Amino acid sequence: MTSPTIKVQRLLPAAQLPRYAHTGAFGDLAADLFAAEALTLAPAGHPGSTGPVRTGLALELPSTHGALVEDRSGLAIRGLTTLAGVIDPGYRGELKVILANLSSEPIAISPGHRIAQLRIVERIQATFEETDTLEEAPRGAAGFGSTGQ
Predict the structure, then answer these.
(1) For a pLDDT cut of 90, what percent of the chain falls above it?
(2) pTM of model > 0.70
(3) What is d(CA 139, CA 146) in angstroms, rounded to the nearest whole number?
């Protein structure tokens, strides 16, 4: 499988193109995304604890691929997490990362800070077929916590 080429338009001077910290055979699954503006998120439970952060970039994804915006584990452990981040191949607007501060302290973000990861995914369009029954499986209807602690 060949790697897709993603065209990136810089919309703000402080914008940085996504980049992989580690490449090669055992490289990163996702590329780092960087803030292009300063923003302070209030502590959890206060107004302003969630908000969009501009990356200053617009992407041209091929019709065969989309992207997911995901947490950086080092930020998530400190209470900074991303919310809903699906980028469809036809979207050409600015990529903004919705961040939520779950910690009890304000979190300041500066231009150039790594704020999230961008995972490129192959787009597969499924067909959904209604049925009255589903085939049995070992897990069945067991949900959250079904595999134990």
Answers:
(1) 87
(2) yes
(3) 8
